[in-house]
Amino acid sequence: MPHVITQSCCSDASCVYACPVNCIHPTPDEPDFHTAEMLYIDPVECVDCGACVTACPVDAIKHDGSLEPTERVFLELNADFYKEPRPRALLAPVVPPLQVRAPGAVSVAIVGSGPAAMYAADEVLTIPAARVRMYERLPQPGGLARFGVAPDHRRTRAVSRQFDTITADPRLELVTGVEIGTDITHQQLLREHDAVIYAVGASTDRPLEVPGADLPGVSSATRFVAWYNGHPDFTDATFDLSQPRAIVIGNGNVALDVARILTTDPERLAGTDIAPHALKALRQSKIEEVVVVGRRGLAQSAFTVPELVGLTSMPDVDVVVSTEHLASLPETDPRAHILRDLPRRPGNRRIVLEYLQSPTAIARTAAGLEVEFARNELVAAADGTTKVKSTGETHSITAGLVLTSIGYRGRPVADLPFDDALGTVPNDQGRVDGVAATYVTGWIKRGPTGFIGTNKSCAQETVRALVADYNAGLLA
Ligand code: NAP
């Protein structure tokens, strides 16, 4: 019987290198690695040795005999990935070790302490005697691993154990409560180190540009996430949970996270890392229904299949999708299988997945916040993507709380160039354009996409560029 990867896959590919028969894909060198929603085990090739279970940092790999009923869909998802034969080597090609001309001399400052920073530090510390000084603005390290992962995603949060091992390395010095650009300048960092890596993430939200988006009661999902995770900048934030309905605009994984937290029985959150102030507020919440609204169709939903499985597996929350939207999915689409025949259980809270609607205005009325939506139809764009066009028809939904969940956005970094359209620092494989000895990794390098583990290969690319420059004498 094979092993199976389940929804808390972090995609860092540790399992890939542990597997003796190369049956876990995509591997980091394969073209679909950066677009895959998770990694998958080939049930035919798996020799059931369990090496991947030990390697997985988030306990996402299970023996198929120990899957919960709600996880059995992952048997199919893992097997489906191998329907088309994949050419593959006997073993996954291992990333060659870094070769440094004078190993003892490398000293690197890393700004930030989230997953991108941790994987970058891990990579630098593979160089014998290299030293890392990691700077974090907040009193605690962890970035989005601590303040972004939903508290009920316990297995994903367990990745922090791996990060604790990295920060415990005596060659890494963690400096908290220090902001680069305010307390220390970029030039000071460069004077004290051979190189600086910025791993500062995408620390704000993409704004929704419609009239009324700045009204009290309208907030962003990123703020709500930071609040329930106890981020020190957001402990005083307030959210109106006193009305029966909340609206979430956008349907990525963050939208599903906030919809789930708003509808989960607070007693199921009680034993998690949720901030006490958020648990207290959620215990008093009157929310019965969360409407998650996508501007395109069900087939273009931004959430991933593993997260949809998690959403539809909740015993006390019903997920509702209209038959019209369901009919738009091909029978072979795993989402059709997951969303078909969902139970409607009296007394349960509801998450309604709505599609083909763009918000056009938000107004405060006596009944609450009224969001006007324009109905859309899909159009095929010249570049092959699916876009929308308004049908001219509008309608409104009223709610007590409106959360915009339309993506994160990077902020400019002092003394570095900034691409305002992308919200990233312009770079070539991590080398910051026009700024010597300065590198970026993670979301500030490539934009806010991917999973925690995606940052590992991103950091490897950046540190490889740094080491190549060091070896070429460019960092002196
Ligand atoms: P996202 O996946 O990029 O989704 C953004 C959503 O906002 C999409 O539905 C998008 O629609 C919509 N949108 C963008 N602009 C809009 C506008 N002007 N009006 C209406 N809708 C708009 O962003 P995210 O949910 O913040 O997630 C960020 C990254 O973190 C993703 O890679 C995600 O997978 C990852 N993440 C992963 C997990 C997990 O693995 N559990 C949890 C949280 C986040 P279109 O698709 O039409 O553009």
Task: Provide key terms for this protein.
six-stranded parallel beta sheet, 22% strand, binds NADP nicotinamide-adenine-dinucleotide phosphate, alpha/beta, 476 residues, five-stranded parallel beta sheet, 17 helices
How many beta strands in the DSSP annotation?
Answer: 22
Average pLDDT reading: 95
What's the gyration radius in Å?
A: 23 Å
Can you count the helices?
17
Q: Structural class of the secondary structure composition? A: alpha/beta
User: What strand order characterises the main sheet?
Assistant: 10-18-11-12-14-13
List low-confidence stretches. Answer: none
Shape: globular
Residues in β-strands, percent = 15-25%
Helix content: 25-40%
Ligand names: NADP nicotinamide-adenine-dinucleotide phosphate
Describe the protein in words:
- Helix 4 crosses helix 17 and helix 9 crosses helix 10.
- The longest helix is centred in the last third of the chain and has 18 residues.
- It contains 17 helices and 22 strands.
- The protein is an alpha/beta fold.
- Strands 10-18-11-12-14-13 form a 6-stranded parallel beta sheet. The protein has a 5-stranded parallel beta sheet with strand order 7-6-5-8-22, sandwiched between helices.
- NADP nicotinamide-adenine-dinucleotide phosphate binds next to helix 10.
